[in-house]
Amino acid sequence: MILPIVAYGDPVLRKVGKEINKDYPNLDELIVNMRETMKNAEGVGLAAPQIGKDIRLFLIDASPFAESDALEEEEKSYLKDFNRIFINARIIEEDGEEWAFNEGCLSIPNINEDIFRNETIRIEYQDENFVHKKDTLTGLAARIFQHEYDHIEGILFTDKLSSLKKRLLKKKLENISKGNIDVAYRMKFPKQKK
């Protein structure tokens, strides 16, 4: 089932997600629905807060980047198969030069900005079977992970912008939170105070 994506301004996007265990209700169904929702919105990642759940769960499917002419063949090959579920993820270490890349977010449609992130990260997480895993991610895989990880920490990519950029985007962000936006997928907008 395709779920509505929570828009900028909803308090759930600012909550630090709670850890879950294998007894979390209807987890398999939730993961299937999140994957369907992400694909429908043409996203490469989706975190549980973006569908209104304040839990430490996100999915990544980086395969759309495998078509990019801007990437080396080795990275394209890696991203083609980078399709994972991350439960209770943690970043253990960040390393390497910070580099800029133009990011967007399904909860903040029609806004893309250059964001600086570390090149390499070491992580630990549980997969959909709650098997504990450790990995080192670099390049775009690391970037997508960091973006989705921020969601379960209550952080949005716009938080990483300069105060000038934030001021320039203020009206656009207000319009998103009010639902004054044209978008090709289902969204849930925050209730407006009267």
Automatic annotation (TrEMBL):
For activity, the cofactor(s) needed are: Fe(2+)
> Is ATP-binding there in the keyword field?
no
> Which SUPFAM superfamilies does this entry report, sorted A to Z?
Peptide deformylase
**What does the cofactor section's free text say about binding?**
Binds 1 Fe(2+) ion.
Key words of the record: Hydrolase, Iron, Metal-binding, Protein biosynthesis
Q: Where does Fe cation bind?
A: 105, 147, 151
Q: What is the designated name of this protein?
A: Peptide deformylase
The organism of origin for this protein: Lutimonas vermicola
